[in-house]
Amino acid sequence: MTIQTHADETNGTPEVLTTADGKPLKTSIARALRREKMRALLLIAPLLLFVIITFVAPIVDMLFRSVENQIVSTTLPRTVVELDSWDGTTGEAPGENVFNALHFDMTVAVERKNHTQLGTRLNYEESGISSMFRRTGRRVDDFGEIYADQFIDLNSAWEAPATWVSLMASPDWIAEQAAWVADRDAARANGTAFEQPEPAFAIREGVAEALPRTADIYQAFAEFIQTEDQDSPTEEEPWNAVYTGLHDDLLANPNAASAFSGETATLLSQAANAVSGFEKISLREAFIDADEDWGNPYYWGVIQTFSPSYTSGYFLAAADAELTPQGIQMKPEDEQIYLYLFWRTLLLSVTITFSCLLLGYPIAFLLAALPARSANLLMILVLLPFWTSLLVRTSAWKVLLQQQGVINDFLVWTGLVSDAGRLVMINNQTGTIIAMTHILLPFMILPLYSVMKTISPSYVRAAKSLGATDWTAFWRVYFPQTVPGIGAGAILVFILAIGYYITPELVGGTDGIFISNRIAYHISTSLNWGLAAALGVILLLAVMLLFYVYDKIVGIDNVKLG
Amino acid sequence: MKFRTLLLAGAASAMMTSGALAIDLTVVSWGGAYQDSQKNAYTDPYMKENPDVNFIWESASNEAVAKLRAMNEAGNLTWDLVDVVAADAIRLCDEGLAEEIDHDEVLAAAPDGTPASDDFGDLIISDCYIPQIVYSTTFGYRTDVDAWNGREPDDICDVFDLENFPGKRSLEKRPINNMEWALLCDGVAKEDVYDVLETDEGIDRALAKLGTIKDDTIWWSAGAETPQLLADSEVVIGSTYNGRLFSLIVEQDQPVKMLWDAQVFDLDGWIVPAGLPDDRKAAVMEFLKYATDTQRLADQAKYISYGPARASSAPLVGKHAELGIDMAPHMPTDPANATNTFLYNYEWWADYRDDLDAKFQAWLTQ
To answer: Would residue A286 be called left, alpha or beta, if left means φ above 0 and alpha means ψ between -120 and 50 degrees?
Structure first.
C-alpha cells in the first residue's frame, strides 16, 4: 500500500491522505480496525452471550417488576375502561355500568382462577382487598343465576349449548367444527391418534351490533372453554353471566331478533317480549351484598389509581411514600421504615469497612514483612474463616458473645463486670458489626497484602537514611504506596457488606438488620416482588452512586486487587 | 443354555417393567426431626409396599411459596408434593400455584366410613390443602430461675409480667401471634381480638403492651432459636413450636416446662403444585391417599409431638418410638393442655399481614 498525498491547491485546507485505491487513509484504517474489533468481539461473544443470558437478563427482568402493573388491566379489562370516567371525588361508589363490567370480568377471572392474584396485588396497597376478591369470587357465578333460570323456564331450548352456538357462532365456524367432529370420530373409529385442536370459535357477523354484551361475554366463554378446559362450546352450557348479558341486551334492544332469521329469531323475539317481565337483580347490590367494601369509594379509588400498566407505586413504597387516590403522600410515621433502613445499612457498612481496615492493615503488614514460611502459616489462619460454613461461624459468635456466653463468663470470673451487669454484645448492632467484620476481614487483608508485597523495603530504608523518623517514613513513604490496596479492600468489603443479610438476620436482633433483610422478606415471605425489586433498584443505584463518588475521590485506576 | 436364556430374558423383562414404572417423587418439607417423622411414618412404609416409587427429599418449605412461584414463571416444575403451613397454603391456592383437591375423592375415608372431608372437618381451610398435623405456638419456661422465688408462670399474661417473672423473653420477629397475645393480656376478650386489631388504636394498644417487655425481648426468626436460648439460660421464657419444646424437655432433659395457656393452633399439611404432568400427578395422589389415612397420621405422632389432623387418628396415638413414653399428654390437642387455646384467623391475616408487618417492623427498629 503506497500512500500518496493530494495537496489541495485552490484553498488552504490540509491535505487528505489516501491509499493506493484512492480511498482516504482515515477510512481505510478505520475499516481495518473495525474488522479487528469485530474479530475480537466474536472471540468474546460466547462469554458475553453467556453473561447476558444468565446474568444480565434475569436481573433486568427482576428489576423491571418494580414498575410493572399489567395485572389490573388484564384481569379487569372491562371494568378499567368503565371506571375511567368515574369521578372518585364525589364520595360515591361507581354506578351500575361499572358493576356490570365487573361482573363479566370477575366471572372470567374466577374461571381462570386469577382473581385472587389480583386481590393479593391490590392488598399491598390497601389491606382488605385480598379477602374482598376472594369472598366475591366464591359468589359471583350465582349473580346471573336468576336470569339463567328465567330464560330456561321460558323456553328449555336456552339450556342447550346448541341453541347458543346457532345464535352466536358464524356459519363458517359451525361448518368447520362439524367437519372437525367428523374427522375426529373417523379417527377414533380407526383407532388412530387425532391431535388436531377444535377450530377456534368465530362469532357470527352482526351479533356484536345486535347483542353487544352477550357477544362479548360469550366470546370470552368460548375461548375459555376451548383453551383452558380443552372442551367445546357445542357441549357446554354457557356461564350464568351470558344469560345476564342477553337479558341486558334484549332489554336495551327489543328488536334484536330482526338481525337473525329462522328458529333463532323466533326464540329471540319470544325472549325479547318476556324480559321486561323478568325478575331483576341489581349487580351493584349483589356485589355489595357479597362484600360491603365494594360500596366503599375508597377501594374503587385504589383500583382506579392502580389501573395503568406501569406504576410508580412500588418505588414510592420503597421510599416510605404511597400513591393514593388523592396523590402522592408520605406514609404514616409508624409505617416508615425503608429510608431509615437504607441509611442504617450504609452507616453500618461504612463502620464495618473501617473496622476491617483497622484490623486488617497491621495483619497484612505483618504478612508482607514476615519470611515466606511463617507468612504462609499466618495466611492459612487468615483464610480459615473462608473454609468454615457461614452459619457455623455465625453460630460460634453467638456462643462467644451471648450474655451467658464465653466472653461474658470470663469477664464475670475476672470480676470486670458483675453477674447482673453482663454485657449485651449480640442481637444488636454490636453483634452485627463484630460478626460481619470477622467474615469480611479476608477481603480486606488479601488485596492489602498483595499490594504491600510489591512495595520495595528500600524506599522506607531510604527515607530513614535521609533522616525520617519511623512514623514519618511510614506515613509519608510507605502508607501512600498501600493506598491502592486500601481502595480495593475497602470497596470489596463495603459492597459485600451492603448486600449481606444472613448474618444480620441471625445476630442483628432488631437494630442490627439491613435493608437486604427486608428485600429477602418481600421475596420469600410477603411475595411482594415488585417492592423487593424497587428496593433492589434503589440499593443498586445507591451503590453505583457511591462507586462514582469513590472514583472521583480515590480514582478507580488507583485500585489494585493484586 | 436354555435355562440361561430364560434367566436373562426374565431379568431383562423385570428391568423393563421396573424401568417403565419407576418414578421419582420430590417431596419438600421442613427438614430436621419433623421431616424424619414424615419419612418414618409415610414414605418408608410406602416404599416397602411400592418399590417402584422413590422419594427425593428437599428441605425448603420455609421458602416454598416463593420457589413455587419462581418455578411456575420459569415453567419448570421440579417439586411433586410440598409441605406448608396453612397460611402459605391459602396463598398458594390464591395464586393458582396449588392444585385444588376434591378431598373425598382423593383421600381415604376413616375406618368407620366417615368421608375424609368430615374426618378433617374445619381443618380443611383451603380447597388446595390436605392438613397433616395440628401444632401450636406456645411458651416454654425455665424451672430454675432464682429470681422467681419458686413461682411458675401458668397464665399467658405472666409473659408480660416483669415484676413477678423477671428475665429475658424470646418472641418471634413477626406480628402474628404476638399481637394477639398482647391484646389478650391488655384486657381484650378473645372473640374481639381481631376486631380490635383492625383499628389503628388496636394496633397501637397491642404494640404498647409489647413495648412493656420490648427491652427484655430477644426476637427470633428460626424455630430452633428459642430452645437454644432456653437451654443456654439466655432467656427464661420464650415462644416456639410445641414440638421443639418437646424435644428440649423430653429428649434433651432440660429444666424447662411448657406453658400451654393461650397456645395458638396452626396447621401443617400438603399441597400438590398445580400443573404437574399426568403420570407424576397420579403417583402423588396415590401416595397422598396412603400417607394421609387414619393410621399413617397416628403413626407420625410416634416420632414427634404434633397432633394428627384427622379426628379418627386421635384414639390411635400411641407411645414414642424410642423413648416409649405416652405421646398423648404431650399433644397440643390433649384436653389437659387445650383448656385455653387461641385460634389463629387465617383469612384475617391474609388481608392485614402486609400492613401490620410494616407497622411491626417499623416499631421494632424504633
So the answer is: alpha
Give the CB-side neighbour count of residue A169, counting CA atoms within 13 A.
23
Nearest CA in chain A to B225: A506
| pLDDT value of residue A14 | 62
Domain boundary among A228, A258, A275: A275
Q: Which of A114, A116, A519 to mutate to test binding with chain B, by most B CBs within 10 Å of its CB?
A: A116
Residue B59 contacts residue B35 (beta carbons within 8 Å): yes
B224 shares contact with chain A (CB less than 8 Å): no
Nearest CA distance, A500 vs chain B (angstrom): 17
Distance CA B301, CA B308 (A): 7
In a shared domain, residues A287 and A428: no
Residues A434 and A539 in one domain: yes
- Domain span at residue A197? 156-275
Residues A35 and A125 in one domain: no
Per the structure, the count of domains in chain A is: 4
Task: From first to last of the 366 residues of chain B, give the pLDDT tens digit.
Answer: 455 555 545 444 444 444 446 899 999 999 888 999 999 999 999 999 999 999 999 999 988 988 999 899 888 999 999 999 998 998 898 888 999 999 999 999 999 999 999 999 889 999 999 999 999 999 999 999 999 999 999 999 999 999 999 999 999 999 999 999 999 999 999 999 999 999 989 999 999 999 999 999 999 988 888 999 999 999 999 999 999 999 899 989 999 999 999 999 999 999 999 999 999 999 999 999 999 999 999 999 999 999 999 999 988 988 998 888 999 899 998 888 989 998 888 888 888 888 898 889 889 887
Residue A313 maps to a domain:
no
Helix (H, G, I), strand (E, B) or coil at B11: helix
Give the three cell numbers for residue B332.
397440643
From CA A140, how far away is CA A147, in angstroms rounded?
A: 14
Locate the chain B residue with the closest alpha carbon to A426.
B218
Contact with chain B for residue A134, Cβ under 8 A? yes
- Answer whether A130 sits within 8 Å of B351, measured CB to CB: yes
Question: Which one of A527, A528, A535 would you mutate to disrupt binding with B, by most B Cβ within 10 Å of its Cβ?
Answer: A527
Query: Measuring CA to CA, which residue among A226, A159, A169 is closest to residue A203?
Result: A169
pLDDT in tens, B144-161: 999 999 999 999 999 999
Q: Does A427 touch chain B (CB under 8 A)?
A: yes
Residues A299 and A358 in one domain: no
Same domain, A174 and A264: yes
Residue labelled with grid coordinates 481502595:
A487
Quickly tell me which residue has 353487544 as its cell: A212
Spell out which residues of chain A touch residue B362, defining contact as CB-CB under 8 Å.
334-337
CB-closest option in A117, A336, A509 to B94: A117
State which H helix or E strand residue B82 sits in. Answer: strand B81-85
Q: Which domains does chain B have, with CATH numbers?
A: 23-134+267-330 (3.40.190.10), 139-264+340-365 (3.40.190.10)
- Asked if A244 and A301 sit in the same domain, the reply is no
A23 near B CB under 8 A: no
Q: What is the pLDDT of residues A234-292, one digit of tens each?
A: 999 999 999 999 999 999 999 888 888 888 899 999 999 999 999 999 999 999 999 99
Q: Are residues A256 and A184 in the same domain?
A: yes
**Residue that is last in its domain, among A220, A254, A275:** A275
- Whether A218 and A125 map to the same domain: the answer is no
Report the C-alpha gap between B331 and B133 in whole angstroms.
Answer: 10
Which of B179, B254, B351 to probe the A interface (max A CBs under 10 A)?
A: B351
